[in-house]
Structures are given as structure tokens and as C-alpha cells.
Amino acid sequence: MLLTLRRSLHEQFIRWALRVRPPEPTPIHLTQRRVYVLPTRAGVLYAVSLLTMLIGAINYNLSLGYALVFLLGGLGITTILHTFRNLVGLTLNIGTPKPVFAGDVAHFPIILHNSDRRTRSLLRLHLPAQTSVSTDLPPHDHTRVMLPLPAPQRGWLVLPRITLETVWPLGLVRAWSYAAPGCECLIYPRPADAVPPAPTFGGMAGGRLASDTGDEDFAGLRRHQPSDPPHHVAWKAAARQDSHAPLQTKQFSGSAAQSLWFDWATLPPGIDIETRLSILTRWVLDAESDGLAWGLRLPGQEIAQGHGPDHVHACLKALALHEA
Amino acid sequence: MKPDAPQPLTLTQTWWLLATGLAAFVPLVPHVPIWLAGLTGAIFVWRAALVWWHQSLPTRWVLVLVTVAGAAGVFLEYRTLFGQRAGVALLLIFLALKQLEARIPRDGLAIIFLAYFLTLTQFFEDQSIPIAATMLATLTVATAALAALTDARISPLPLLRRAGVMLLQAVPFMLILFVLFPRVNGPLWGLPSDAYSGLTGLSDSMTPGSINNLIQSDAIAFRAKFEGEVPPRQQMYWRGPVLSRLKDRTWLPGLIRPAQIDYVPAPGSPSYRYTITLEAHNRPWLFALELPSTLPPNAFSTADFQLHAKKPVRERLRYALESHAEVMQGAEDDFVLSLARQLPAGLSPRTQALGERWANEGGNDTQRLQRAIEFLRQQRLTYTLQPPLMGQHVADEFLFDHKRGFCEHFASAFVILMRAADVPARVVTGYQGGERNPVDDTWVIRQSDAHAWAEVWLETQGWVRVDPTATSAPARIEQNLAAAVPAGEPLPMLARAGFDWLKDLRFRWWAVNNAWNQWVLGYDMQRQRDFLQKLGMASPDWRKMIVWLAVLCGTVLLALTAAMLWRRPPADPALRQWQRFCRRLARRGLARYEWEGPDAYAQRLVAALPAKAPEISRIARLYAGLRYGRLEPLALEELRRYVAAFKP
Prior knowledge:
heterodimer, A: Immunoglobulin-like, 30% helix, 29% strand, B: five-stranded antiparallel sheet, 49% helix
């Protein structure tokens, strides 16, 4: 109960502290108004020590004791300024994150720019509930920090608010600021591990293109994968080897010839949506690595046949964003 | 926020912590028992060896064992674990042991804060200028270690420099707080009984050798500053404890009770007005030139004319006095006189027999006094800092056998002699002479000026000072210790003759020290009020001080912030020109959109202002080239010219 209240108060503070409604337009300049300073645990301990020493100095009337405590007190104040300066005036920009598969870790590129003529040391960035990334920033320079965030689900992974903080130089004071730049990372569905073989050549309902050349251009053998079409297995080669040897798959050149359709509808009806998407993803990846051309049919969407990285991306994006 | 797991201490950080421990430990070495210094030093060496050869830290059992042994040692040494000195000793052991179990930064913090605290504890013993310098050194190392805990990658020198710079920036705050933080009088609560055991000075008893020990010290007993007339040096008898009771070999004070000053200045006798700054000596007596006619606040005069404070002097004390070279006394109290006649039977029988013979031969007290002085002169006694070891009958051995002694032997033997001759007499201890510092014209009286003399009661004159030492070693009184003792005897450094160039330097150093004592160490409630009043604060009280404190600290903080933040250099000069250009167009209603790059903006502008097309596209191209491309800085000048000439 108390914990929930604390958390909700914290959330409210962050919303207030951000000063703008997220997502904020980039670049984000960390002005003095949005950098906050509070003592760390070490800082509180430091203050308590100083208080004890001050009482001692008063009690024993030690003039140099006063001087010592006041000097250390002054040090505490100056370290606030140093820590504050280490963060304030920083400019933050955001790059485009590379898509990853669900279950992997997405990395958001954050570009920090230091327009100051002082090095900023030990800036720490972290996302809620994630470990932090530390970086230094030379004067008049910029640096790129990759912020990791686990991507459990396909679809758009929205970059949560970033906390930038520093305790440099003495660790007694923590200066921090929040930034909520709008940024999303595309998360592809997780490719299925064990999948039925991809539909080929009319074996399943997948259609075969008119062009039937190229299929014959045998290019070599590679290790068999469960999703390989069974009639590409080099049975003859398998017969020549002993029974424990792995199966080999025949590879053919001339991608134009091996053009496939991966169709949502052809998958057995009992499979749920996410599994279907996983299987389709696996097929797309395998087809690309096999150098095949393929097309993708999803309910209400069709992607024409093709191949290459852009085509892979288009297909995977469609799969990733498929309405549940 | 998930806290990141604590990193183990790096090698550099471990060295820094070791350095911090040493920086806190070394200044304390003179003030702790030798075994403790040895133990602590050994643990530091142990730790350094472990680090050097990359060995792992000892197991917990070893630490527990050392802790228990150390605590037991402290208990045996001080008979307690809670006194001030025992506390410091325990903290020192913890500081050393913490080194042996420092694994993560939090342990490092403990070491650093402990070092800060131990720096404070050395002020119990000493608050001189060199100690203040040591404090700064310790603070710099500890602060650098603190910075190293945060950022272990920086090499030592830049780290020390950073710590130094940060401490320098803290100095204004320190000065403001030091001047304006309201001071209170007296301790907040009772202090441990051994709180002031580090202080030295005359004690209230005298056995052969006690002053002799004291006199080896160059420590300052007090300073005196005269207003107007200054008495001749040989007349400067600074009166301290008066010892009337003799018990075995030990002289003890009479009855200490407040009494009226029952003497008046003799007509025509010179009077001296002066201020004494007395070092803390943890005893209640105050020193005054013989004999004072005024009383400092919170003090009283005893029946034997000593000044007593109501509480032991535990911090430096300033008081103003007026004294008179000659006074006239009324009748003396019978009790005081009976004390001054008391003589243990059988003690120094030869001396007593001599005195009794004089008493039986008749003659008045003045004549008996003359005989005693004459006798001392005839005995050809030698004044020496290294008297031979004497047994039970010190006076006998001194007067008749060894004939070598120190002022306490002279005074003691003389008083026994006079008492045996039926003349009331007593021993007076205090200081004699002093050294004038020409730089600030103050007299410095050191422990090496400690002295013992005698007083006899003459029916016609009252108490009369007799300095038996002066009869044998007049140089001791007229000049100083160095002149009185035979050449070749060890003397306290500063009492030696010669070294004139050194002397000048020394005088300056003493003047600086005096100012330090008066203004830094003596900055108490009274001084603070006087000083603030002098600065123009009408009737300073703690509320006003706090307000001023806050205002001044705030001002310094603002100034520092401004200096730190505004020193940011101007933005990219190309950007500045571009912004200037955009501002001009914004006034024409053609403001650039946030998302518009130079090319897109230029295109829109060209469409809106076709007449200016060449300039607009030139400026946009120059800016884009300077900022995003590889245009040489020369192009900046061109951009500046174009922008300056551009009139939308």
C-alpha cells in the first residue's frame, strides 16, 4: 500500500519533472530547470558525520574543529555545483534503433552532445528497472550510448523515459534529469524453432511461379534444417553415408526460379496467432538465407514476391505489426 | 530504478584508501601510546603488502582477534574504553582494521569519514599553525580518495589537484561560517574526565624535579602585553601556586579559599597595567605580576595572594590586570602564619639544627633573614639543570653535601631554614622573566621560565619576596636560564644564546602565532561579538548572525554558480550566424519551423522571396557546409558577411 503510494508519487514527480508531455521533441536540452540535485546515501552519511564533528567542536571548543567542519561543509556545497554542472546543459538526441526479434534485447542509440569546454565524466543513463550505462563526454564532442531494453513482445517497443544521472566528482550528491524522447523500436516476432516445412512447389497450398527454370541449377549442399522442403533433402547423399550422419539439403541457385508464397491461411487451423507469426517469420528468414524469393499473404495484406534485406524487413514488419 | 551491484574496490582505490588512513594516522602518532602507533603502523604495512603482492584479505577471525587485542590494550592503557583518549585510540584501531576488510566502495567511505573524524581529534592535543597545515594535507588526500571512489580511472596528481581546487572553492564558505556561526560558551555537556589531560603547566605541588621537568619545555605558558610602563625583567615575578605545607619531600598548597585583597599599593610604587593571554593548563590558578590589585572576572584572590579562577582554565583565557611593585599589608591571619611555621620533625635535621641555632642566638627576624642569605652565599651553591639524585633529606644534601641544585632546591631549603629559625616562610611557584617579542611588543612567558622562590613574613614589613636562586645564580634572574646554567648543559632550544638571525625569525613566528591564538583559536563568543560590532553589526545576536550567514553563503553560492555555468563558450559560430539570419526572417513572418533543415527552409524562402534567391541559397549552403559538411573555417567569414548584408 505504502509502496504503491510511493511509486505513484514518484511517477507524478517524474511527470512534473519532465516539464513537457512525452514524447518530447528532440534534441532535448537539459536546462537548469529540469536537472535535480539531492544528496546520495553517502552524502547523507557525510552530513551526519559533519554534524557529529560540529557538536564535538562546540563541546570541546576546538576552534580548528570549527574550521575543519566548515571547510568540509563548504566542500559539500561546492560538490553540489560540480555535480550539477556535470549534467546541466547536456543535449540529448536519439538515433534509430535496429529492429530485433522478440525475446532479444533492443538497443536504443542515444546521442549525447557536450557543447561545454569541460569533460563531462561518468554520466549514467538508464531506463526504468534496467542496469545503467556509463559514459564520458569530452569537451565539444558527442558520444553514442546504446541503452539496452529487453523486448518481450513483437510490435513497437516504445522507449520509456530515460533517467540521466551523475554523482561525479565525489559521489556525495546525485544530479539527475529525465528525458522522454519519442522513439520506438520495431520488434519482429520470434522465429519459431521447430516448424513445419515451408510450402513449396505446390506441395502445400503455396503457389509456384510460372518460371520453373533455375530450380535445376544445383549449387551445393548444406546442413539440413527442419524447415527445409523434404524433396530438397539429398537423399542419395544420405544413403551413401552412415545412419548417424546429418541430412544434407540441396541448394539451388537462380532465386527467381524458387519463388514461394507463405500464406497465413495454409497453416493448420489449430495453431494460434503468435505461433503462426513465428512460423512465418522462420520461413521468411530461411527463405532469405536460402536465397529464395517469396511472397507473404496475411489476412487483409499481401506482400509481393521478392528477396533481399528490404524485402525481409517489409515482411517481418508486416508480421510484427499484425493485428492480434 | 534497479541499483547497480557494488563494484569491488580497484587497486588504485585501495591505494588511495591506504594513503587516507596514513594521512589521518601520522599526525596522531605523537599523541598515542607507542604500542598503539606500532600496532596501527603494522596493520598499514600488512595491508600495503597484501595489495602489493595481490594477496586476498585476511579472514574475519584474524580481524576479530586483532580488534579484541587492540581494545584490550586500550583498556589496559586508559582503564576505560569511553574516555576521550581511549575513544581516539579505538577509532585509530578501527581505521586500521577497516583497511583490512575494505572490499567495496562503502567500506572506502567509512575509512574516509573516519579519517575526517580523526583529523578533528588531533585538535584535542594541538591547534597550532603546523597542525592546521597538516589538517589541510590530510583533507586533500581524503577528498582525493573520495573522488577516486567515484572515478577510479584518474591518475593521482590530477585527482589531488581536483581535490585541492574543490577545497579552495570551499574556503569562502569556511570563512563566512567561521566568522558568523554563533559561538557558545562552555561545553554542551560534561566532558570525559581525561578531556584536558594533554595540557601542561605548573602543578600545585612541588617535589624535587617537578619544575625541572617542566622547564625542558618550550611551550608557551602565557603572553603579557603591557600598557604603558613595563617592569624591569628581573622584577617580573609571575605569581602562581603558593605552597605552604611540607609533607615529606613534597610542598603542597595551603588552604585555598576566597579572601579579600587586604593590601594597598605603597605610595610612590610603580603600577603596571597589562593583559595576560593564558594558555589552557587545566588548573584553576591564574598568573599575575606580584602583586595584583584587581581581579579578573570569575576569579578570586586567596589568603596567600594567588589568583584563582572559579573553574579550571581549559581554553585560552584573556584577562586584564593592574599590579604594584610594592604593597602595604595589614595584619596576617594566624592560621596562615601557623601554616608558614609548620615543619615536619626530623626532616633534613642538619638544616633544621642550623636554623634553630640562629633562633636561639637571638636577633630579630630581619637579622635572621640576613644570616640565611649570607649563609647561602657562603655555601657557593651551583645552579644546575641536572642536580644529583637526592634522598629523603633533600635540603641537607643540597646545602651541605652536593651543593648543586635547581630553583626548587634553593627555595625549598631556604624556606626550611627560615622556618627552623622561627621566621614564617613559604614557597611561591610561578614564572620569572619572559622574552619580549619586538615584532608585536608582547612578552612571551614559556614553561622554561618556570621558577620557585620564597616569601618570608617580617613583623615590620609583612610578606617579603626572597629569591634564594638569585643569591647563587643572579644571572638566572637578571638575564635568563641560558646565562645561569653552566655551559654545556642541555637547554630547551629556544632558551639558548646565540643564533641572532634565528631569533629575529623566531620573533616573527611568535607574532604570527600570537595573532593565530588571538584571532583563530581565541575566537570565542566575546571575540565574535566584538569583531562583528567592529564590522558594523549593531548588537550582534545569534539571529542576526544566522541571517547574515545565510545571505553571505547564498551570495557566494550564486557567484560560484555563475562563474561555473556562465563560462560556457558561445555556441558554434556558424550556428550563431544562422540563428541571426533566421531571426531576421522571423520578423518578416517567415520563421523557420523546428523540423526544417537549412535546405528545406531555403527552398521555402526562395519561393516566398524570389528576389533574394541567390543570397538565401548561398547562406543556406554555407551554413549547411560549415555545420554538417567539411567546409573550411574560412567559409565562416563569408557566411558572416552574407548574413550581415542580408536584408529581407
